Amino acid sequence: MSRAERREALLARFRTGSLARIVEILATLEAADALEPSVVAPLRAPLHTLKGEARMLGLASLAGLVHALEDQLAVDDGGHSLAPIRAVVALIHERLQAPLVENSEAARALERGLALLSGVEPPGAATPGKPTAASAAQPLAFSQIRVDLVEELCERLEVLRVRAHPSDSQRAATLDQEFRQELAELTELAWSLRLVPIEPALETLADHARELGRQLGKPLRVLIDAGGAQLERSLLERLQEPLMHLIRNAVDHGVEPGPSRANKPLEATLKIIARSDGPEVVLAVVDDGRGVDIEQVRSQAQARGLLAAAEAGAATPRDLLSLLFKPGFSTNQSINELSGRGIGLDAVRRAVEGLGGEVSLTSTIDRGARCELRVPATISRETVVVVPFGRSLWGLPSRRVARVTALSERESTGGATSIVVDGEHVPLVSLARLLGIPNAHLIEDRVAICFQHGGRIHALASPPVLGEFELFRRPMGPLLAAVGPASASAVMDDGRLVLLLEPAALLGQRIRAEPRERPPKPLAPRSRVLVVDDSPIVLELLVELLTSARLEVCTASDGVEALELLGCRNVDLVVSDVEMPNMDGFELLARVRQLDSELPVIMVTTRGSAADRERASSLGADAYLVKSDFRRQHMLEVVARFVEVER
């Protein structure tokens, strides 16, 4: 692919992604009544990404327009009208649909946007039409794959089809074993089609780095070392933005202007590296610039209240460098079109950890910095260590697990907060408590799952693991997405659901204040909620949500069990599914109304038809929520109508 072709492909991806962001931003603004902080906060990261990408693509006017919008949102105190903001967002949408070139029309659009924001031009004057999701639709993108692999895949499929109908009984006797072997080989071949070389993507990034160096007046030599590494196609696409952030950060923050490079060559060097490392791929952006001033980070962390004086003094360089990935933290003293808002590295960390990877930064003053991303080579298929908690299953990626070691009786039941691994004391944290499992202090931990993160070993105390399984990752639906640190889901061969975890997210939820076995402190009397659902995962989700709001929760797996509980316990609210064995939710609701006409009942179900809603209402339901629209905050708001909750 030529350089011009690579640029056209990148512009197409930029247009598609940016249009989707702008449509979401405008929808947020349309639903808002004022520029409250809660409205502005989620807009900053997508605008920052859009601006940075436009800048690196040489679309200076578009980048300037987004930068001006960022400035307006940063200083707005909520008293300004939303109209000019909406008008400028619509103008950005219009420019994204036009040819992506820097010309006189782009310059006029920038002038008009600045006039709108300054109040010189009324927002209603020939304002571009409101964009919609449909208007953001783009032609399908196509990727190149090897024709010989496609042909082999088709041939092997045909062989399997023929073998599925053997002509003799002896052949049929060995069919199962041969079929499984062929299917396993065929699966490997099919998965290989999902992998693509990383090098073309790195070449595109190198082109942008050179262009950015020219724009900033910084002579730059860019070296690529891809090492033949490959990534799953969808994963590589999702890494484009994080890598672009790192390139921009290195050229703007790291590389000095030529006259300031002292004894170093006038032309700075930027390396973009990729390496396969077992089931993972390591990508790195390395510059020979000024490096990170550790003492400046230390003083800013203390000034911003991120570290107390004693903590700041004792912090290691690794601890301090990790602060650069905190939201809003930046050592840049000024804000320009490229950086200074403290958004770039935070966006990188969130994106990489969302893919099951981790990010690290090392630096030497006056010699440069190295930012490294470690990600799985494929995110669709994962070997997972599965841990059972009651009827629910949780999984950790095997590539992150260094070992699983048995806990001694003292460590298991004696409240140990650390164990010794290879002669080193390692913090021991209860996995059940991190996940918010009810009565976590009563769970008997038998093993420690050890893994590395950020160059350090960590240990999770858990019940015995179920085993190691190769599973197909699935994205989280709206209901399961609310389950704490779970990043994806998978299904075992026997149909059981596994919620997949990422170590980085778990560490973010670590509870430091109490030993892991200490019982919870007595609380004031709480309202009691009965949750009825035949799905263990949904039960666990709702229990976690309601207990986090300081509600006492009891559970039942169907209507019959719920009625038995209601006969012996007083409750203040019932939350019930509809489709359940033995007795469904509608029958349960009718029976509850016979027993107590005042007891509030909320139906939470996958059935969202008007007929089902009407039936629930006629039987006396107080609220009706559809699981596909499930949102934690909305659920708590509905519950708060009937009992007191803490949010």
Q: Mean pLDDT, as a whole number?
A: 79
CATH topology of the largest domain: Heat Shock Protein 90
Shape: globular
- What's the total helix number? 23
CATH class categorisation of the largest domain: Alpha Beta
For CATH, the homologous superfamily of the largest domain is named as: Histidine kinase-like ATPase, C-terminal domain
How many domain regions?
Answer: 5
Radius of gyration: 28 Å
Distance between the termini: 54 Å
Strand content: 15-25%
In the sheet with the most strands, the strands line up as 2-4-5-7-6
Q: How does the helix and strand content classify structurally? A: alpha/beta
Proportion of residues in helical segments = 40-55%
| Main sheet summary | 5 strands, mixed
Please state the second-level CATH architecture of the largest domain.
Answer: 2-Layer Sandwich
Low-confidence runs of at least 5 consecutive residues: 132-142, 334-338, 511-523
Q: Work out the number of β strands.
A: 22
